[in-house]
Amino acid sequence: MKVLMLRAVIVTSALLLVSGCSLFGEKVQVPPAHIGKVLTKDGYKKDNYGPSRFRLDPCFAYCDSLVLLETSDQPVTERFALFMPKDQLNMGFDLRMTVSVDDAQIDNIYKRVPAEKGLISFNKIYVTYAQPIIRDVARQIMAKYTINEVASSRERLSAELQNAIGEALKAAPLKLKRLGLADVQFPEIITKAKEQAAERREQIEREKAQFEIQKIQQERELAQAQMQRAIDREKAEATKEVNEILAKSVTDKYLSYRSLEVLEKMAESKNKVFVPVEALGSLGLQQAVFAEQVKQTAKSKKN
Question: Which region, left, alpha or beta, applies to residue 118 given φ > 0 means left and ψ of -120 to 50 means alpha?
């Protein structure tokens, strides 16, 4: 009897499997950064499932399935090659963004975006709703500026783009969390002009540095020349003072007196030389007397 019952259970289970029925319900899982909804034959159930594991309802002719939706923050890069009207030149740039699904729009996403193999991917939502808006708004804003304005105001432009694109995406099921203008590719003619300008600035800086070096050298030479002039002036003034003192002290009477002293000493010397009286006023004798006076003065100073 037990054998017959076991056979009956096996046959029944086999029939259920063949017919696509499940007595216990399928085991399913919602991974992190995903939302899950159960799809029935009548459409999606109202409840959303966060990261978890559970069983679907038992089924017979038709079985429910779990449909996942990516909700994680996603990095997105949009590359542009844009004709700049004010410059009549082409310029390339990137927009680097962080975008996520708007939690308030999850039910609308399930209603409007079909799943592929049980998954509604972020990329499909982005391409469907956000990409056309982002490209259109970015081109409109960037076309208002010149290439030089873009080069000098990237942070301000990034803020303007983020505000404008974020506002435009309010009608879409995605939210813009961050945006930055990056990898700006300027036209070759602009790049060369900037390089040449940089070279000129560098050359000017080198010439300024060389000028400062020469200025310092010239100032040092001027200071040395001024110092030498001061030394020469002091020497000249000292010589002048000595000459003035000698000129005042050596008078005609003093020369006559000294002449007599010289003659007196000459008379005491063994080497006597007789000089005519008329020669006493000669220049040579005066010079001798003067020399003797200088010698005596120097000797008295030493003593």
Answer: left
